[in-house]
Amino acid sequence: MEKQEFFANLHYLPIAVFISLPTIFILTYVIAVLLGHVEAGFPYISDAATYAPESCIFSQTVNLIAILMFFMIYIRYSQVKECTSTFGSPASLPKWNHWALIFGLTSTAGLSIVANFQETSVIVVHLIGAVLCFGGGTAYFWTQAVCSFYLHPSGCSLRLAHLRTALSTFCTVCFFVILITGVLAHLAYKGTNPRKWYKEDGGWELHVASTVTEWLCAMAFCAYILTFTEEFRDIRISPPKVICNMPRLRSSNEALNESQDSAVIHDQMNPSTST
């Protein structure tokens, strides 16, 4: 019997997201400051990725990270689904797992939107993406925290479930702080370039509170993703099976052969037309 191959070492997936996401945030911030596109104070993450070339680097890299996050979210969904059938978990767990998948994919889509629609180009779409990213991500964390409690003790430790609950609470507080202080800061703003927000422009304290909270929330997101590392160590994924429709393939081949035979007969009967 042919040995079946498996995809292993999936615990590197959350580690890769945990390392790459803050790295690209910091890299674009450094480039933006060096090029004079933002002040070295407390800009939003998206402020530091508004102008080229840092916006190009940011969008391309974040799109790749979003793909990794998509796979991670689906793998986690499949893992909880498998645990549900194996350990005989409560009947409500599949519903929580289903909503977790929806919220996770929503957050991933929002992250990609934020990366590709800069606030100086399409501000409305950018803000929608930001709300989907942070709001959907926070909802995903809460649903995963609930799933973690349901999976205890067979599929998850109680300590890890409490940690995810704490991170979910922190992200929820950060989400509302970002929204409230961000709106109030822009209402009080009297400057001309929000990417270079000075104290005399008004709303400085609220602006700093909003931007710092956004960075803290992003770091908490990365920390939450890292919590899946140990659980992903025991996951193996078999390659997908490709099923070929043989009758349809035979019909296509027969039709192709008939067409070629007809062309040969036509050339033999009309030699003057051949070159």
TrEMBL record:
Keyword terms: Membrane, Transmembrane, Transmembrane helix
TM spans (from-to): 12-37, 57-75, 96-117, 123-142, 163-188
GO CC annotations on file: endomembrane system
CWH43-like N-terminal domain mapped to chain residues: 10-235
Database matches in Pfam families: Frag1 (PF10277)
Compartments, record wording: Endomembrane system
Record protein name field: CWH43-like N-terminal domain-containing protein
Species for this entry: Lasius platythorax
